[in-house]
Design goal:
CATH class of the domain at 287-540: Alpha Beta
Strand content: 15-25%
CATH topology of the domain at 287-540: Rossmann fold
Number of helices: 14
Length: about 550
């Protein structure tokens, strides 16, 4: 492969890469504002300029290009020598920072971007220690540009990332550059606000505090937030996300870069769709029909009583006829495995079904390759894969000729009658109403053990109601619309006294006399899953989030 040298470090590159691409890939920082790997390259911020020398094709001798060159726009070449640390390059960096800060308001103390602002970071590392500007700063207005986004124009450094995003990625063209020189501003076209399905990404793209998320505004200082890698639990996209939280409360969801799945973006649906996690309607305590509400001061007694009653109902159903289990596509593969194994342990011929899979519209792929999925369930394929493998592994399973091992939601309602199943274990965990009329009518006439997160019409029919945890409150893996298995970690503890479906399945199994683990562990469960024929992929093919590299602080401290 061809080589070049950046700041004394030799690096390999592929033809077509820019210098800044090679540097960032090799772990060398080159300051930049306008450059983003998912957008076109305008080379207008000028802070990435470097001194470049390259071999003369005739003499073979290194010759220095007389002027500084933008590393974001200059292709890497064999034998090239690049430096951003020479006196000339450093002087440019300081000059650019000084120009950018001339009219920038000093409001870091109240700016939501403080703590993750490139202007702050680069000012500290590449700027001057003081300002030489004596005149009055130009004041620009604050603007409401869309449903989710505010624009603080006086903080804008005109990198134009947001404009290029709406032009090149969403192709909705809501943002533009208005004016010239000192009066230049980002704005929306008259009568057309920032209104597209990926609008929140302009906040992520903004390197300063100009574009801010209304939902996160003044909610939390970013240095208090903990970041947990996760997967989209709202749609079938499998988008890689970071759940940012503090003291058990989620404050925002941001995209994690994965070029094979969601590139650098997420939809607003995923960005804001997690709010049901902290809904006041969340189910937080078990309920047993005919018993008074449990004392919240003694949740262990509530769970013991409820689990005992649930096992009693399910065992009675298995003795008197057929059991059935409806496993939600909102659950993780591990949840589905442990619940399915528990039910089949009681009745090897149990009717198994995948819960309703909501859809909205049609799949749409944007210009850059990002796909917005119409399917609004994160794991319909994973749940079906797990249940089918479990059912096929049951030697004593008796099925009618031509019958499927696992049905969809519509087929499940018919199968209840065909199989004569009088007792049903149902799971929900949907962010909104999900029980259809036919399903509600069919389940209302049967003995019901319900595991769910939000109230539904089934609550009043359930003999036992067990509160469960959302995907943000547990670990596991999902299979997205393209068949990619991806794991996610628990961000926060389950609300109040709720438990994950996997943990509930283990505790039910223990009470039923099955040999199970005491506590749920996602990695251990995947190892157990891989021992079932057809589920070997859960050890060999699950994609895990990359381990975050530690970063040492360069802050000098002194003991007082």
């Amino acid at each position: 492969m061809p080589h070049l040298t950046i700041n004394g470090v030799p690096l390999e590159f592929t033809k077509g890469q820019s210098i800044i691409d090679v540097a960032l890939q090799g772990g060398i920082e080159i300051p930049h504002y306008c450059y983003h790997p998912g957008l076109s390259v305008p080379a207008n911020c000028r802070i990435c300029l470097a001194e470049i020398s390259q071999p003369n094709p005739k003499s073979g001798q290194l010759e220095k290009i007389p002027k500084l060159m933008p590393t974001c726009h200059t292709p890497a070449a064999e034998g090239m020598v690049v430096t951003t640390e020479s006196p000339k390059a450093v002087a440019n960096q300081k000059a650019v920072m000084e120009f950018l800060l001339i009219n920038h308001p000093v409001d870091c103390a109240v700016c939501d971007q403080a703590g993750e602002c490139h202007l702050q970071d680069y000012s500290y590392e590449y700027g001057r220690s003081h300002s030489r500007f004596q005149e009055d700063k130009i004041k620009n207005p604050k603007k409401d540009v869309g449903e989710h986004v505010l624009l603080y124009s006086d903080r804008c450094i005109m990198c134009t990332r947001c404009v290029r995003f709406t032009k090149e990625v969403t192709q909705t063209h809501e943002l533009m550059v208005e004016g010239r020189g000192g009066t230049e501003m980002i704005d929306v076209f008259p009568g057309k606000g920032l209104d597209n399905e990926l609008s929140g990404n302009v906040v992520d793209l903004c390197p300063v505090g100009a574009l801010l998320d209304k939902d996160f505004l003044f909610q939390q200082r970013v240095w208090f937030l903990k970041k947990t890698p996760s997967i989209d639990g709202i749609t079938a996209s499998g988008d890689n996300i970071s759940v940012e939280h503090n003291e058990g409360t989620v404050y925002r969801v941001k995209p994690r870069t994965n070029l094979e799945v969601n590139q650098w973006w997420i939809t607003d649906e995923v960005r804001y769709g997690w709010k049901f996690v902290h809904s006041e309607q969340r189910l937080t305590m078990p309920v047993v029909r005919g018993k008074p509400a449990f004392d919240r001061e003694d949740p262990s007694e509530a769970w013991q009583t409820s689990l005992a009653r649930a096992v009693e109902v399910l065992q009675a159903g298995a003795r008197s006829g057929r059991l059935a289990a409806l496993i939600s596509p909102m659950l993780s593969c591990e949840d589905a495995f442990l619940l399915g194994r528990f039910v089949l342990g009681l009745d090897p011929s149990a009717v198994l079904g995948v819960g309703p899979v909501p859809r909205s519209g049609q799949d749409r792929t944007l210009a850059g390759g990002f796909t917005i999925h119409a399917e609004k369930a994160p794991n319909a394929r994973g749940v079906r894969r797990v249940l089918e493998a479990l059912a096929a592994s049951q030697p004593a399973r008796k099925m009618p000729a031509g019958a499927a091992h696992v049905t969809d939601a519509e087929g499940f309602v018919a199968a209840l009658t065909t199989a004569g199943a009088g007792t049903v274990l149902v799971t929900g965990n949907y962010p909104s109403a999900w029980v259809t009329e036919p399903m509600g009518a069919a389940l209302a006439t049967r003995r019901l053990v319900l595991i769910d997160t939000l109230p539904t019409r089934l609550n009043s029919h359930a003999e036992v109601l067990l509160p469960s945890a959302t995907w943000i409150e547990k670990a596991g893996c999902f299979e997205n619309a393209r068949g990619r298995l991806q794991s996610f970690e628990r961000a926060i503890l389950p609300i109040d006294f709720a438990k994950s479906e996997a943990q509930i399945a283990l505790e039910l199994g223990a009470r039923a006399g099955q040999s199970v683990d005491d506590a749920f562990d996602a990695a251990r469960t995947r190892t157990q899953m891989a021992q079932v024929k057809g589920l070997e992929a859960f050890v060999s093919q699950v994609c895990h989030p990359p381990v975050a590299a530690g970063r040492a602080s360069d802050m000098v401290t002194a003991d007082l």
